[in-house]
Amino acid sequence: MESPEAYRDPSLPAEERVRDLLSRMTLEEKAAQTAAPFGSAVDVHTPPEAGWGNATAGLSTLGLPPREAVHKANELQRKHVEETRLGIPVLLSEEALIGFKIRDATTFPDAIAQAATWDPELIEEMAEAIGTQMARLGVRQALSPLADVARDPRWGRVEETYGEEPYLVGSMATAFVRGLQNADADVPVIATLKHFLGYSASDGGRNTEPAQLGPRELREIHGVPFEMAIRLGGARGVMPSYNAIDGVPVSGSKAYLTGLLREEFGFDGLVISDLAAVGQLHTKHGVAEDDAHALAQALRAGVDLNLDNKATADQVVEAVRSGVLDEADLDRAVSSVLLAKFRLGLFENPYADAERVPETFDSDRERALARKIAEKSVILLRNEAVGDAPLLPLSPSLRTIAVIGPNADRPLGQLGNYSYQVLDSMTTRFHLAADPQARPEDIEDLAGKGSPDDARLLVESVPVVTFLEGVRRRAGDGVSVLHEPGCPVATEDRSGFEAAVRAASAAEVAVIVVGDQSGINGYGTVGEGLDSTECALPGVQRELVEAVVATGTPTVVVLSHGRPYVLGWMADSVPAIVSSFFGGEEAGNAVASVLFGDVNPAGRLPIAMLRSAGAAPLPYWRTLQHPTYVDGSIGAVFPFGHGLSYTSFDYRDLEISAEAPTDGVVRLSFTVANVGDRAGDEVVQVYGRDVIGRTARRARTLVAFHRVHLEPGTAARVTADVPADMFALWDVDEGWVVEPGVIKFFVGGSSAATKLRGEATLTGTDHFPGPDRALTSTVTVTAGAAASAAPVPQAVRPSAPPVTQDNTVREWLDHPVGGGLFREALGGLDEDVLAPALDLTLRQLVAYSGGQFPQSLLDDLLTKIGDHS
């Protein structure tokens, strides 16, 4: 009598089912489970006899609406379950970073815009909506989110990240993972963190180039978001990066994929390679002598699925039979793939319920969520007065508005590169079957040069509200809205300048929408494989802005973009600047609601906009220190965490634990008050600095944040419990260490605007928290009475002597009024850089600083201190 098939028994532990099934598999069937074809380059709807382990982009490339796509998904699954010997289901995967990447699914704002909300709970809600849509179609793996820490604005993939700060990135990635994986308890899905590890630290910001990272930076900066999303979010998937770290390609490194990822970070899920990354161990990195040895190296390292259109199961079989690949290494990979499928319940529930699939995934609820995220992501970078009031919000008395610019009325000008519309429009044009690795030179005869201005929307999907449409809808019939594109995105074509200038001259206000075109290896100014040397507005867009400003018409610049720009020139000439990054399908409505004041902007920069691209890579904690160039600054025009509001907020009454043990928690409490006349959100930010350590520490690091809503004239008491573990450093010999000593804290509305400052002392001996160290702080908000919102008068104590230019820097910093004025004048510059100059007078500081501290700074200080006397 044939023994029962234990692997089909759902009551048994998944690990036991894996062992049983593996024991029944032929070498060919094992090899098939490591194969992961991509899109229609391999007809994923006609699998081989043994099937595949995974099929990626099998639905998106069909271009079908959901109710038709679900039948294709079920048919592919049926071929695996009913037409293969063992009935092993296939794992369907799609991209999902800014929405489920298929036709008729919601296109949310790009990841960098999501990060600008500083609202992880909102991103979790978005990911839950995406996960629900995936589950409906039977797609059980999302190749999202990115947990890469953006290090260099020149890198084209900054738009796909959650910014430059490890804690913010980790918080957002964790929220995405939780929302996606917990969307449907009956149909679980896998979130896949990418790109592990250090991918964003590539030389010169060039995509896939090597990263020169030491073990400390690797863990303290780049590893933290992955560790957070694995330990706190429970991420079940990881994709290794293309790059090499100090000469070791990650996709072939057992030290990274087994030692660091699985053993140190505790990951117990599925590792899928990036597209063709395994083959690059031979073709790009030269660490494997041929494709067979590259495959063997990757599987030994810890890769489970080989995402590659050219790789086949036959190659795996030949590698084993020739002795290049040990079958035990193949068994390990196959076991991981099978374990993932058992945990997902795919054997019991392989098919999607077609009756539950809606006509469109872009319902009113999803569109409202997309708009909410877009509205919360809008960043008011600058808002100077025109006449007697700030230019924004726009006056309700306006009767003529000019909406100008290449991205004002272009749907592709507001969508991220991994949106269905952008990627599938490109692949349709490429005629290369949805292969995002295709390069312009490969398709020149078919698709031209791949200019960003040749990008066209070539696929059907959800409606996209452009900025022009948004302004027209909000302005109403009584307002004349003029429109001129002015110029293309990238081409040096100035023929539209004259018409744009006429429109601006005829209007009471000009809204000029400039920025990027996203793409992948072509047809874009930003995106995967589209890196920059300058981080400047592409083409002649700067000239267009300058021409419009020269008309004298009050001008608002709206940036629809994927990377930070060098904007010093704009900040010096344009009264109002707004960033929406790539705001998704509802960007036009969202930005219009901010421009007209229906929404009070509260987005904050998740990555700084520098004064010079040549200074990059330049994390925010470095921008607050001394400049190091003879011909430029390392400062930021708009620093990390920056964003303005239509109201004003006051910080006061900081209380902080004087001491805490090295294995304890530091508690900070402070009051934030809305002292303006509009309701608004403030993103409170707490930064810390470990003053003395056995290794060099960052000058400032984000340790807590929270988005707080306040009605006008009200206040809230904010309490942040910051574990001492947040200041752990990596010691190559002893691992994670929290040392005793002084911790300085900085509290405020951005990394460069920290009005409240204090310190605490960590006491005791060195603490070694190990892998279970605390990775997050806890923030609680208690609303206060309206009366408590009244600002506390800041007056000089009667006993405080006046200060002049002949007082020392130390005396100014210690002065009850002069100290605050001096720190404000520094513009966020960390005052610790003044340590060598504490005993210089202000007059001497100006004379000896080589222009860093100009006479105008001194004159301004003396005027302000005089006003307080």
UniProtKB/TrEMBL annotation:
Protein source organism: Planobispora longispora
Keywords per UniProt: Hydrolase
Record GO biological process: glucan catabolic process
UniProt cross-references to InterPro entries, sorted A to Z: Cellulose_Degrad_GH3, Fn3-like, GH, Glyco_hydro_3_C, Glyco_hydro_3_C_sf, Glyco_hydro_3_N, Glyco_hydro_3_N_sf, Ig-like_fold
Pfam families given in the database record: Fn3-like, Glyco_hydro_3, Glyco_hydro_3_C
Top-rank taxon, per record: Bacteria
Protein name from the UniProt record: Beta-glucosidase
Statement: the UniProt record of this protein carries the keyword Oxidoreductase: no
Keyword Transcription belongs to the record: no
A single GO molecular function term of this UniProt record: beta-glucosidase activity
Fibronectin type III-like domain location: 682-751
Gene3D superfamilies linked to this entry: Glycoside hydrolase family 3 C-terminal domain, Glycoside hydrolase, family 3, N-terminal domain, Immunoglobulins
